[in-house]
Each structure stands twice: as C-alpha cells, then as structure tokens.
From TrEMBL:
Keywords: Protein biosynthesis, Pyridoxal phosphate, Transferase
Positions of post-translational N6-(pyridoxal phosphate)lysine modification: K207
Pfam families hit by this protein: SepSecS
UniProt name for this protein: O-phospho-L-seryl-tRNA:Cys-tRNA synthase
Length: 370
C-alpha cells in the first residue's frame, strides 16, 4: 500500500530535512537504483572497490579531496562513523572521551556502546551555550585516561560553531585524536579537515548532502587508517569497523548523483547565513528570541518564545495550537506540542518563503492576542 507524504507541498523548516532534499539528479538515481542491493551486482568483495558505477572514484578520489582528508569511506550515517572510530579506540580499559556538552545524543550512546566514559566540556549556559577550547582543556585536566575527543560543528540544538582550530590544538598538545561531528556542516558549508583541524570528520548524507538515507561519510588522516579500517583475519578484504560493507544501493547512488549540486551550493553559504540572521532579527521583533551564538553563523536556530507559550496556556488546542496553525498555513518542521522552545532552519528557503513564514507567525500571534 502506498502512503503519500502529507507535507510534501509544505514549506519545510525542519533542520533534519532542509539540507537533505534530493537534487533532480538524485531523484533520477532514486528510481534507477531503487531495487534492493542494486550496486552489489557489481561488487567483487568491497563496496568501495566498485568501478562501475563509479563508487571507487567517489570514495577514494573525490570524497577525500572534498573533505580535506587522506582517507574516506561511506557509512550508514554520521553516528555509525562516530561509533566506528570510538570502537576502534575502545581497547584500552577505562578509556575516556572528551565531548562538548552540546553533543548530539548519538555521540553519547556511541561512546556508551564502545565502552568509553564520557567527560563533558561544559558550555557557557543560557543564553548562548558556547563551548570553547578552554572548556576542553578543563575537561582533559579532569580526565584520567582520555583516548579520544569529539566536537560538534555545529551542534544540533543551537547551531553554534565552536573554534575547531583552537580545540584541535588543545587536543593535539595532549596527544588526543579529535573527531569532528559535521552532520550539519558537510554538504552545507565549505569544510576541509586539514584546514580546520582535527583527525576525523563525519558527515550525514540525508541531513546535509541532498541524499536519500540513511547514509554518511567518514574522513580521517592517514595516520589512523590502520586503526579504524583494520581488516578481518579471516575475510581479508573486509574492514571490521565497517562490518565488511556499509551503505549500499540507492543511498550511495543518490549521494553520488547529488555531489555536483553540493559542490555548487556550498559556494552560496554566506547567503544562507545572511538569511538566517535576517530571520532571527525579524523573529525577535515578534518577541521570539534566538538563543545560541550572536551574530549567528548557521541556518539551524533555536528560539525561545514566551509569547507563544503563554498563548498555549489558553488556546483550545493547548500546546498543540502552534503545530495546527502552521499546518493550516502549510508550514512543516516544528514538532507537535512545542511552543516555548523550538528549533528550525532557513536553509535553501527563498526570500519569499522566509517572508511568508514570518508573516504566518505574526498572524498567529495576532489571532490569539486580540
């Protein structure tokens, strides 16, 4: 039975989805390669050895250059990339990982699954929640056996962009490899691991690289390839942390198909930042306050709205009134029941769509405040 997506024609402001909209080329690949393990028909043992379609070229030539690293792999998502790294470093009993307090839950559970103890680099708290290199230094000083560190760039709550170069220097001076979780960076903005700092980078195809999912990318320095990409003793070509093969089929082909589109759109990142700042400024005129870094440097934004929260106390639909009102206006992306705090993204929205969203919130507030 076919289930149509009810919000297909809506303006989508969900940060999880704005960067994952398929390019026209990817839509064609979705149909062409949608049958089961389609690319596995061409496999001689490992996914990244497939020459036709050009998975080998993408993984071993195009992707490392794009990520600014030495070695790259396609994964089943950013979290799978993080876990592969953490598990490869988990052999030392009592190992710890330093992680920013804004880290995504999947970073934490990956560490738990790998048997690593998490020590947080604390954020600055309300209203900016900033994490600095000094916070990492403090966390490292409190650790007994740190084997890895992770920084989220940007974090999935506030859209803050920590200073990776400084954090990487702190980690390097303490001989701790650094993972950069770039799930909301890779595919949206220009990022080169060797230029920015760090030892590993993970990204998300379905969040930020215009791909069907789940799919992700993993990049690393050559120094760590033998550790993370160690091969099986019995099945000689199979990489253990990749479980032999990772993402395969249609998700790989949509990722590859969208790549030229991705390369072009990151050139317009400054425009995306400008639109986000404009949106936040206009929202604050309505009494809806942007939390996190200011001026903001990412399309993902977190807002605090006392005015909408107060309305929810009296509205017939209660805390679900905002979701229902936005649905009437064909705007999708704020989770049902959220009024006081919510996040959204302006990524790839037109000027007209941004103005429409602002007017929609203004009309909703006027409707319930009159």
């Amino acid at each position: 039975m076919f289930y149509p997506r009810q919000t297909k024609e809506f303006i989508n402001i969900d940060p999880l989805q704005t960067g994952g909209r398929l390019s026209e080329e990817a839509k064609k690949a979705l149909v062409e390669w949608g049958d089961g393990y389609s690319v596995c028909d061409f496999c001689t043992g490992t996914l990244d050895s497939i020459k036709t379609p050009p998975i080998y070229k993408f993984v071993h030539e195009i992707l490392p250059e794009f990520l600014g690293c030495d070695v790259a792999r396609i994964t089943n998502g950013a979290r799978e990339g993080k876990f592969a790294i953490m598990h490869a470093f988990s052999g030392c009993k009592g190992g710890e990982i330093i992680m920013d307090e804004n880290a995504h839950y999947s970073s934490y559970v990956s560490a738990e699954r790998a048997g690593l103890k998490v020590i947080f680099a604390k954020n600055s708290g309300y209203p900016e929640y900033i994490v600095t290199a000094d916070d990492y230094e403090t966390a490292i000083d409190s650790a007994k056996n740190p084997v890895l560190a992770l920084v989220t760039y940007p974090d999935g709550n506030y859209g803050n962009l920590p200073n990776i170069k400084r954090i990487a220097k702190v980690c390097e001076s303490n001989s701790i490899p650094l993972i950069v979780n770039g799930a909301y960076a890779i595919g949206r903005m220009d990022f080169k691991l060797k230029r920015m700092g760090g030892d590993f980078i993970v990204g998300s195809g379905h969040k930020s690289m215009a791909s069907a999912g789940p799919v992700g990318v993993l990049g690393m320095k050559e120094d760590y390839a033998d550790i993370v990409l160690k091969k099986s003793e019995k099945f000689k070509v199979k990489e253990i942390e990749m479980l032999g093969c990772t993402a395969r089929g249609v998700v790989v082909m949509t990722l590859i198909a969208s790549f030229p589109h991705i390369v072009e759109r990151i050139k317009r990142w400054d425009e995306e930042v400008r639109k986000a700042r404009y949106f936040a400024e206009r929202f604050e005129e309505l009494g809806i306050i942007q939390l996190g870094e200011k001026p903001h440097n990412h399309d993902l934004m977190f807002f605090e709205s006392k005015v909408l929260y107060e309305i929810s106390k009296k509205a017939k639909s209660g805390r679900f009134f905002l979701y229902k009102e936005l649905k009437k206006k064909k705007i999708h992306g704020i989770k049902p029941g959220l009024t006081k705090h919510f996040k959204l993204s302006t990524y790839m929205l037109s000027e007209e769509e941004i103005e429409y969203i602002i007017r929609a919130f203004e009309e909703i507030i006027e409707k319930y405040s009159g």
